[in-house]
## 1
Amino acid sequence: MKTNWVMLAALTSAGLVACNGSSNTPAAPAIPEGTTVTVALLETTDIHSNVLSYNYYALAEDTSLGLERTSTLIQAARTENPNNVLLDDGDVIQGTLLADLQAVAAPVPCSGTLAVHKAMNALKYDAGGMGNHEFNYGLPYLSQITNTDFGIPGVAKPTGTCGAPAFPSVLSNVVGVSSGKPIFQPYTLLPRDFTATAPDGSKLTVKINVGVLSFVPPQILEWDQKVLAGKVSVTGVQEAAKQYVPELRSKGADLVVALSHGGLDTTPYSPKMENGSYHLTSTGIDALMIGHSHLIFPKGKEEGAAALDASFAAFPASAKIDAENGFVNGVPTVMAQSWGRRLGIIKLTMAYQGGKWVVQPAKTTVESRGFKYTDGKTLVNADPAIAPLVATEHAATIAYAKQPLGISTDFEMSAYFALVGDVSAIQLVNQAQLDYVKNFIATSTDATLSSYKNIPIISCSAPFKAGRNGPSDFTDVAAGASPAAPVGLQVRNPGDLYLYSNNNLQAVKIKGSDLKAWLETSARQFNQIDPASGAEQDLVPSYATIYNYDVFYAENNALTYQIDVTKKLGSRIVNLTYKGAPVADGDDFIVATNDYRAGGGGAVPGIDGSKTIIKSPDANQAVVSNYLASLSTKGGKVTLAANGSARSWSFVKTATAGPVILRSAPGHLALAQASGIANVASEGGLDASGFAKYRIDLSK
């Protein structure tokens, strides 16, 4: 008894307990009914390791991108909104030569931190989600650079503490196959003290618990099958959200934010949807931050902002998507484009009602802010604090990019006019892939593969860099054969020709009917042109899925076809021939492609992994590099005649009453003419995004 009284006295004197058992610490004042708090949720997405405003493929500054400029937007938004949370929606660690250097050429050690994570740590992100490209370099690498033990047999994180993001990494819909448990924490709860306003106008501090979820497309199991098969499984976004949103609420989440690395697909829900973000709005979340599509949502608010992407304009009215103000089924939603080019801002107001915080949609605004937000004309400056953080890595990447491949070219390989027939940046890739598959089958000891030796081999590749990320995002490999430029091709050039270092070469065996369906799918890239219309018509309504525009090639240009853009989707391919004869539905072909396409990426009918006959361990980008090396050892060089002028396709000739335009980088009309693209008639003015409007004469 005496001991207990002493303890009680000690506690009482410490102000922890009174004699009646209640705390002497003043209780937190009750929050007055009707108190409001405004929180700015800030989003970056699809940074793709673009830390600086620099293009390593072109070895030139590019002021249209870079986290160092996004940082300036972040500082401004934080000044405007003291109550803020900074989140990232994934696709951070892959996408530039800097990323490839740190992951493959000179892997960052456990003791080091990725350059992009150094910048993000300096910016004090609050949490980050995952994207599909986080898995490209494999699970061991991802485990190391996030300092996370996935609990997956055979995937061991290095011992000790590895350099990693200084903020929580979250992923809600990927679990280990053997454990059945999430490989990252499925959510995080961020307690934050924010300044609120009472009904009488006075200020008070309130605690807001912000819950954060993250989702990736289920297709990671197809796109990165070689590194994920048997190790992880993926849950549909709705199923995962319905599991974890109630958990977050039960743990006190006042505000639940979904980081969804997927676009807005309004078709009926499927757990296999690549772009299932739309269907998260019914799961009880308060705010939705999306990515993956590299688009702007809602429409930029700064002066001269580009018009909404055609894919947003096409939504049915029943979808309840407000693409002007940024709401999806009443949920504030933002997509901040890609490469650090924008900052998403959901300025969300909540009112304290009935003992809980309730979102006020009428007092909530959404913005996808670009670099010209202040006056619509002037670019924000780069934050000078970022570049010194990654100076060593930047210099190393430039040195890596300049390493010679030992072969020269006599023409410029570019994708500025790939959508109207220029194959100068595509043919070499197709030749490398075709050569690889041809040799693979010829030297194979496998009886089944040997039986395919007489089947025609064709190849397809897309113009991966053809405007998807703005007017500076085009493949452009300069000629390097003149006395003034004897350097020739360098390490940076195969990555310019074939962007995705994670794609591995595969081959599929298909029928002529499959080939026709594949070509029809590629032709979806084009708008349906009305020949009688006198209004201006875009030939390409959206550049968001440019990587799905496959261009086919056969040796000696044996495969040819035409596209009739006046026809509806699914009925555009005509005059499809091989060696001058029409391709029959039952004809056999082997197509050299990549694992993304062979496994179902791009939704080509019938191309779903079931027709794959070769799964190469070699990356397509490496196949291109090795092909160039083989040409070099044979004393050859890359020439326009042999490697850049075999155009397999053309448009069906059509006269139009009004102009048909292609948006591309300005100042390249002469290059189109030099490449033999005679249907580029003139160059018009720039649009709000900086694209030039080239007039395309479909009658030629």
## 2
Amino acid sequence: MTGTYLPGAFATHKVEAMVKLLGLDPLDAEQWDFLQSETTQDLQAAPGSGKTTLIGLKLALMADAWTSATCGVCVLSHTNTAKNEITDRVASLAAGRSLLRYPHFIGTIQSFVHTFLALPAVRTKGVEVRSVDDTAFETAAIRLLQHPDYSTLRSYVERQRDGTGIVTGATFAYKDGELVVTGSTREPPFRAETASGKQLSHLKRTLARRGVFRYQDMYAIAQQYLAKHPGIVPAVSARFPFVLLDEMQDTSTTQQELLDLVFASSPTVMQRVGDTNQGIYSDAGAVNGSDSAFPLAGAAELPVSRRFGPQIAAVASSLAVRRPQQVHGAGPDGQVAVLLFDEATAIDVVSTFERMAASIVPEDTLLRRPPRVLGARQGRGNSQAYPQSISCYVPGYTPPGRPTAHRLLVDAARAAGSQWRSGADNHEAATELWNALRASFVPLTGEGLPALGRLERSAATPGGKVRILLRELLTHGATFDEASWGMITEQLSLQMQLLADRPLKAVGLEFTPAVEIAATVGGVPRSSAAVPAVRSVPGTIQSAKGETHAATLILECLEKTGKKFDVTEALRMVAEGSDPQQELKSVQAAVQLIFVGATRPTHLLVLAAHRNRSKRYAEAMIDAGWDVRDLTEH
């Protein structure tokens, strides 16, 4: 990276000054090593080890020293949520804000592929892109299927159970220099020479000419573009002499292959950061057997978690499936508990957890980070096994429309307002509320709403007016009645539409009054005075990935093969001290999800399991210092 940034960017005195400016804790040796590294390397980071903070710090230092006007830093992640968290951090500093502009790029791998490879490839063919979205493609494909040209394909699809998936899942794959039409799993549903195969290919290519694509299509289009225009590779790699890839464990084989095509043979420095034990997506670990396996031998490691203490760290260490990992807890002295239930008491699990959280977690912490209830499955399937999913514990549970819409906006405003008034971290409070707003106003098309740091400040602009409304929510939101709430959300709706300059769908704006209950633990009132109740927020473990909670409840669910129950398997492994890597693949997959959920909380981790399966492990749990409660005995 000669000539792209000033030497000494990571000098000790500069790092210490930036740490002080950002109000961060002193760095340990492993963090110093990664921060000052200027060569290609991997970093295996335990949950809560400060990975995102470290990334933000490194980028801020790099931005402060950057000199090139044509070459930039490329920061890639997997979700808009993770990308937004990084942009919010760099936008909090004047120097960091330069990374939000040309020649730099911060975005998802998907958006990187779109911007530099796939969209240019499509445009060279004279196609105007209308949408890159699986749902939009499904709608367009079903509509086009009704055309007489596809009568054979339509007749076949109608005779199959869930046959429309053949059409809605039609995807491009790059093979032997050409784009071929396959199913969503890369397997062609028909032989290409059959009538149905020809019609499916024709339908897919017709939608492509109309500019309608699936997300996965763009990777195949990008591969073909690189093959036909090899000069693109040196151009892109020269543009980005430094690449930082966050959440590396979620990189799919297709994504890694494409990134290797662009950067592997170039002088670009690539630093990959993640936790292989949190790779929960089906294709995420597929690169582990390749030359790009993460983490590579000799990778740096951040083993110390500042999110939680030794109790929760011990659980995490026992459930590290993909790679042995001894997590050291340096956070709050949290507690681990097990709730044993049966069919009659499953409905009491969540309320018991909420009372435990109210008695154990400091109230301001609970308000800032409401308790979460997580399970691997949302709804019940056809099996008679019990319990299967979140809905077995939370009657009437309705999955959120989007993974980011975890809680009502009014709850987020109360929690952020409490933090704001405490003066603990005003920037974090404002950021949390803004992120909740972004989740509550969903763009129907195009990119999401900008990060907080990118909102205009002039009161005459929509961004400036939104900032004023944000401050109003932070200052007075906790005292709003229903009428006041209606007025401010009406103003927000107007300004957010203007800010987005596109249609928005509002979700989670309903007013709900703050409820007060007397929290009890084990039948004994916490105090004679009523205490504010902070409602728990249900959702999937997958949707909570990357979050930090004050308290987390993991609900036992049926794992995907329908033969075992995930929490019971995790309790067995902890009690027996078994080697996670020697377990069945199905058990490993189930326990890997439990690992992700169990490493979210700072103060309280609760595992719920059916007593008939897990009572046998109670003694070992008690010996480990866990709080074991049998709900059937109360």
## 3
Amino acid sequence: MSDRSPLPPVRLHPEAELARDALSTPLLSRAARLARWAGPDTRVDAGGGLVDEQLPAAVEALGLSGDDAAADASEAWRVAVDAGLVEVVDEEEGTVRAGEDLALLTGGSPQEVLAVWLTALETVLADASVPDLDGLVDEEGEVDLSALDWDPEGEAAFLDGVLGNLYLLTAGEDTPGGAPVPLPALAASVIVPSDMGEPTNDVLEQVSDAMMRLDDQFRMLEPVGFVAYQPVDEALMADADEEPAAPVDDTDVSRYGMVRLTPLGLYGMRARLREAGYEAPAVGDLADKGADVLLDGTADFPPGAAQAETEQWLQRREALAAARELLAAARGADAGAPLRRLRCQQALSLVGASAEPALREVLDDAELGGLARVWLTEHGAVDVPAPSEEMVYWLTIDTVAAQLAAEGNSEELRALVEGLAQQHGGFFAAVWRVDHPATADVLEAMGRLHPDKKVAKEARKAAFKARSQQGG
């Protein structure tokens, strides 16, 4: 995620549902319980952490047990302080009281609950970028930082890069909803150069090291509800001289770790990306905007996301008024107009027969008359006037221009180009005269895309004529 180009749109769960998810996460629920447990006798150190003498009571209050109980209680307390659930009253005395934001967890809006959760998430992400300090404590009980090869900014940037790629994989239309990503693939996405064919041994070693770091980090991020994580199989990290406890399947990629963003994690990651200045749209963002914003905004959306966005937009409007607004917004001779008209046509396919008057009103419109006839015919309308040859050719150029803008030189477009040349005798002899801003560009594209050299040459000749006619 090195550039700042718009990210794919994501489909978020309703905020009320996400807020309930946030409240039920192990870490935030523990933090809230400790905030309510704290009283006049609770004491914290200079950094706001619970003093060692009070950790056993905190562990008991949370009902924790096991080797990690004290660490889990300490982390929950740290989140409570950072998220405003607990407030330090007197730093010298180490006294605390309930923070103002504690009441938001029971009486606040979904947005306010999620804001508390986002603060908790930032605390965990900061902790996840700190290396394991075990073994670095000297004889006096101090951490020997000189023995630590740690770049705080670099480590945070590495984790941000990994999470950004995980977001892209989650948001992608080709990724099945909720499908986990293998940890080796995720680590390789930020380590292996995109132009590298076969990774070198050195690069593979870096990927292996990154996997081990990410294994620790994702284990930390799961309790806050950010990810769902299947850890790396412990047998893979055993010493080579040790015999595995049971036979292992080396072909099972899940043994190397699997991770996915939860719906709450997707919400959190989008919030962080927007805070960092990225354009990170979500389906539903355009529902209260005008049709012009909808058509332009969904121009680069994948088909599924564009339809979902349009459906939400239509739900807020009466069908006939929506159709008129869409058609008005589809007009134009600018470079983006053909794709706007394609999105308009796709949007109108979701509108019922009650929109028919709006389509009949534009039958004589040079830019909209063709798509209006298509819609009316598909909806079984009667008395639909046949289009003129000029309108047919204009609509053909407009459609191909829109497909070029939406898909580039795709196989679908190649098939469309071949079909047009086959179905219409003398197509190129007539089409270069079409008064459309994209005529020459479309014909040049047809010359590139058509597999028959003779037909491709005809297309290029027609493109030259069109450009000369346009004064280019």
## 4
Amino acid sequence: MPYKLNIFSKILIMLILLLIPIVLLYSYTNRITNNVVQDQIQSSNLNQLSFFMHQLDADVERLAMSPVILGSDPYMREYINRSDSPDYDVLKEQSRMIQKLSLQSVSSGWVNELTVAIPKGKQVLSSSIFVNGTDVWPWHRAIQRTWTYEIREGDKGIGSFIREISEPIRAQTVDQANVLYQVRFSVQNMVNLMDVYKQDKRSDPFLVDGRNALIVNSSSNQQITNAIREQLALDGDLPNSGQVQFEIDRQQYLISYVKSTQLGWYLVDYVPVEKILSPITMTRKLFYTTIGLLLVMSVLASFMLYRNVQIPIGKMMQSVQKVKRGDLSARIHYKAKNEFDFLIQRFNEMAEQIQVLVEDVYAEKIRSREATLKQLQSQIHPHFLYNSLFFIINSAEMEDKESVVAMAQNLAEFYRYTTRVEKQAVKLSDELDLVGHYLNIQHLRIHRLKYDISVPVNMLDEWVPRLILQPLVENAILHGIERSVEGDLITITGEQDENWNRVIVEDNGAGLNEAGLARLLEQLHSPMSDDIGCGTWNVHHRLYYQFGEGSGLTFYPGEKGGLKAVLTWKRGAQMNLPEAGGESKR
């Protein structure tokens, strides 16, 4: 059967055909605008970088004039000419010259050092206290007449630029000159300027020379900076200024560069092309978003033409699927205001009736499970009753009154607790009291028996099924302590984590071998039969019924040679226990 377009599809296709010419026209005009704006922004970036380079050169040029000014100073000339005169107070004049050097140094906007070296007398005067008066000076090196970049020892890896002027001017090395004037400034001055420029422009400027030496700003991206430096080196000699585009890490960058007339270095700045075009991109996205909103509004308008048919059917299909998956609370909350209202109302009534019937069956199943739990509990018998009575008889014949009283009191407390079946949920503290009475009775019978109970106070108010610990203690005595001559200790410890409670019952008795332990664990998860002892099986299944997946009983080899039984149940789950709201009476 051929597919037929419905009204909604036809209207939607018509709207798309109307929008296509508009989108094509905008794309053409946007491409032209994009090229024009990109050219203007690129030109603006280069002009701003050139202006910044001009300011930097101006500062460097002012520093370059410092040696010339020093050489013209009359006091400096007098000191140089008379420093070896016997009637000349050299120390006083040295102090005066150092003060003059310091004042002229701080008069500049950049941090710098001014130094005067006199090779004849091996004298060095400087505005820096670390250089002034030093006896270690490179007297035999060449004179640096142009700005030279170097990293001086002791400057913690921060480079500096130096420039020197000598008298006479023809001197090639320091020791050939009568006097040497040196000015030095740290590259930190340039770093600070680049930091300010970066804040204003949101860029990442750096300086590079022909030998690939690099001066970067404080927060430079080293990976991108190194990649740009390598690309510029591949291009050979660069013009004094210009712009190129490189692709770095799959992103296109616009690189602008300007050469310094003073230093001969290149000031380089880069910016992602995507960032340059961000205003145009934003406008384009706004346009396409508007077109999309118009399309959505058109779709909604066409959808309203038949919403009274499609939406009610969709709601009914969704609710039927929920009921099929077992969600009987599914209802259709929709007013179609037409014939579908009748179907929706009847569906809700039908789902409600099914839910009531299923909940009745489920409640009956819960009551049956509770009856099963009580039946399981009733199977827990006090196997030691007769032995306890015979103990009382024997102690009475031996006129051991204290033993008779102790056995009778503990036995009375034990049976008063075990015969109260109206409450199936008790606090862990009540179970521990019962176990204490039971162990006292066993201690009267088995004098070597010792026990230790250590449970955190936070666990004492946790809810557990009645008679959940006593079968484990009884099992530890009968199958562990009594079967081992050396067995004499039972420990009961409690621990908690974020989600679970655990009580561990451990003895140092005979224990089980690997095969016996595996058989015991297999019996815990098997259906109840005559071949399986009811004590531990009941404990495991009662915990599992009450607290769900993850709860129950398991066994491990004991650390002291016996057997370790671990009870696990959910923490704070007392609301799921039957009759958990009442307090246990003692």
